[in-house]
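1st attempt posting a full record on here, be nice pls
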Amino acid sequence: MSTTIFSIANQKGGVGKTTTAVNLSVGLAHLGIPTLLIDLDSQANATSALGLPKEEGKSLYGPLHGDGTATEKIIPTGIPKLDIIPSEMDMAALESELLQKDNYLAQLRNILAPIKTNKRHRAVVLDCPPALGMLSMNSLAAADHLLITLQCEYLAMEGLGQILSVVAQLRDANINPSLTVGGIILTMFDVRTNLSRQVASEVRQHFPELVFDSTIPRSIRLGEAPSHGKSIFDYDPLSPGATAYANLAKEITKRFSLR
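the predicted structure (as tokens):
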């Protein structure tokens, strides 16, 4: 079976992007799907959320400058079926350095090509910085599907329109004509508030085929888990957050025929 690359991107920060990248990756691994998580954010939050150190020279910074390969940067997480390419502070410099390269939007796709063809991993999850800069745009150019994390709060629809427009531009410019919006993940949902229910209802009404059934709740436990270097499955496996991400992993597995 082929390797499917998912980009989890959003121009906003604080919408559950990294939380989703980490816990979705672990959820897929728990289903027996060989998964690779790639941390593209210079803050390296996905790296530390799995209890791994931020070490110089371990990220994709070198390969994106022709120094080594992406495959060489893959390391095990200690969770069966889950590997990671960590991040580091140097990744921040790529936002400007990539612009100096020819075909700058294809740099990430080029270095990930061997990972996509060797079929060692069934799913690759790209965790992007919280902005639509060069790394996020490279992620979209390299991905098969974009997964959008959408916070159930005010102005959510406005931000959604912006990222959907970017996807259309990448397709129309033939940068990644096969890129699809793989789905919308509603995050930080609080059933107690009218606003959360209203946003969720509106998004489902506008994009009924895109929104996943699994809704990620607003949860203190989800917020605490990264500080302990653990996914929600290891930190509090019986919590609503763990249940939600387990269900999301199952949905994604089925929607994209990952097994």
